[in-house]
Amino acid sequence: MTRRGENRPAGGVASAPWAGVRLHVVTGKGGAGKTTVASALAIALAGSGRRVLLVEVEERQGLAQVLDVAPLSYEEQPVATVPGGGKVLAMAVDPHAALMEYLALYTKIRRAGKTLERIGAVDFATTVAPGLRDVLLTGKIFEAVRRRAKNDFVYDAVVVDAPPTGRITRFLGVSTDVAGLAKVGPIHRQAEAITTLFRSRRTVVHLVTLLEEMPAQETIEAVDALWRAKFPIGGIVINAGRAPMLRHKEVVAVREGAIDFESIGKELSSVGLDNEVTAQLLLDEGNDYAQRLGLERRARRMLHRLDRPIFDLPLIEGGVDVAGVHELAAELRAQGAA
Amino acid sequence: MTTKTTGTVLDVDSLLADRNVRTILCCGSGGVGKTTTAAAIGLRAAEQGRTVVVITIDPARRLAQALDLDRLGNTPLEVTGTDTSAGGRLDAMMLDMKRTFDDLVLSHTDTERAEQIFSNPFYQSLSSSFAGTQEYMAMEKLGQLHQAARWDLVVVDTPPSRSALDFLDAPTRLGSFLDGKFIRLLTAPTRAGGRAYVRMLSAGMSMLTSTVSKLLGAALLRDVQTFLAAFDSMFGGFRERAEQTYSALKDGQTSFLVVATPERDALREASFFVDRLETDQMPLSGLVLNRVHPHRGGSLGPERALELADELWPEGRRRKGVEVAPREVTANLLRLHAANRERSLHEERQTSRFTAEHPDVPVAVAVAQAGDVHDLDGLRSLGASLAGG
């Protein structure tokens, strides 16, 4: 367990607060940028020559768009190299392929997959059976985390672009449900092993949020639900932050009228801009800014009360592209998230 | 205020005034403000005289409070504080997936059988965590509310799906599963006349039984089979019902609103959805663009603002003695203005990409508010903003 503050030791390269963690689950409110942050985190973790797998589970091809690569498939493929020899591979887990792989591995019944497919059982399992879809997805993540070649793990870390906050606890907990439904057999045993991994010190769940009331509130509710389900919480990533435009004292001066229409107008005319519309506009924008800053401060206070490491990522103007993802990865490293 | 939209403008009030429109479905990716939009649209329609019910899926806590939503309800309750002077009324409810499923079972079978179904572990799991159940139950609820004939407009906030398209696909998927080949196979031993099936596909069936037993244990298979046997009487209606609800969406009394924010990903998702609606010949009314930061007037462009700012007070210059220098503040306000202009230009570029691809889709714009909407006044001003006010 890490406490807030440990992520930013004074001076030098910050040490990762999650030494020993092999599975990073990235969730967040829809629209907060979890796909971008998951990609950046994978690149950040791949520094110092490490090998990281980035996993998509929602079949949206969001990672391919962020990383500007061809649509991902079930085959793990390189998507980024990092100075120092690090490598990021990525895959999109689709439940159908996961089930086929699973049947081939565990049932040892020749052509089991094909037959089950023909009678509609595969469709049933991957699209409609309660929770089975999520079982297959989490099962594949579990396999990737534990996969070994000779004595070493194939991946130093696995980063999952997970379902949003509203569904994350159910997603991670699906194995527990399954273990309750299937009371014996290999699936029962595997479901238990998955739950054990997800609740262990090898796993952290990071939450991506924005400095706005609703996303912050949802983050707090998700942390609570995850905590009650015994999943380890990692960091809170505040995404798309804007650099401060006015100092706090200046904001107060605008809000309280110490800086007013007159004083702004006077300064503007000194550079040849005699325009009352502009002076009023600047003042209005200043007041809106003051209000927004107040809301941001409140959201940040709420998030700080969670007592988890907080990472701040800047807004990338004009939308995130590959260069932007690398920029965010560098930022995460600098702040000690990897 | 000058809000530039390149496409045609969606006339929200005409849509709400059109008595032929009896369902409005708000769709879009997560985090774009679907729930708030649905609530704002519902409130505006009610205050203009319609009898409205809003189905929300998972509203933020404070919005739920504003709408007097009872988390345990699953039935519509009147929203107090609605202006009913135009003769309308607003009811709201929060969808409880499990309760809706339970009610569906109860309406199709006797109490004893229903109890059997409710206590089955497979049903418990199906009704609470099934991928697609939420979408199906939202559709089911929509059908029920129309049947009740107490409202002349139902506004639906769609579930937070993996993709907005799930909402359209899930009901037919569940319907065809419950009524499909696989189920008939599983239940074959318990049905009269099922033997032919079993013989025909006996290889597949025994493989299935042995695989499932091997993987999941015989107990689960038994649970599934018992559940299906108890559920048997209801099957026939399921797919039919799903198909009915689906085709009812095309009957000219339904209107889709696709919700997005002026950002690349949200608009991309909106674009997919618009294409899909066109393919399926679903009636799209338009795009609701939430949280727009419009150009607030004035002729001062971003570059000029930054030049003037630097002229007044170069970045990094030290202050002497005073804590707040009006000159420095004015320079910083100019920089803020430049950033705001850049943002609205960026949003306009993103939006114009959408309108270029879909020139025929009307757009309604809601201006970004500083805080979240969590009371009726907030919903009212959002509704007014959408209607162009």
Give the topology string of chain B: H per helix, E per strand.
HEHEHEEHHHHEHHHHHEHEHHEH
Question: N-to-C terminal Cα separation of chain A, in Å?
Answer: 15 Å
Q: What can be said about the biggest beta sheet of chain B?
A: 8 strands, mixed
Please report which band the strand proportion of chain A falls in: under 5%, 5-15%, 15-25%, 25-35%, 35-45% or over 45%.
Answer: 15-25%
The CATH class name of the largest domain in chain B reads Alpha Beta
Mean pLDDT of chain A: 88
Mean residue pLDDT of chain B: 84
Question: How does the overall form of chain A come out from the CA principal axes?
Answer: elongated
Q: Give Rg of chain B in angstroms.
A: 26 Å
Give unreliable regions of chain B as ranges. Answer: 1-5, 190-200
The separation of the N and C termini of chain B measures: 10 Å
Question: Any low-confidence stretches of chain A, pLDDT <50, length ≥5?
Answer: 1-15
- Please tally the β strands of chain A and state the result: 10
Supply database-style keywords.
heterodimer; A: 338 residues; alpha/beta; Rossmann fold; eight-stranded mixed sheet; 10 strands; 49% helix; 16% strand; disordered N terminus; B: 389 residues; 2 domains; 55% helix; elongated
What's the gist of this structure?
The complex is a heterodimer of chains A (338) and B (389). Chain A is of the alpha/beta class.
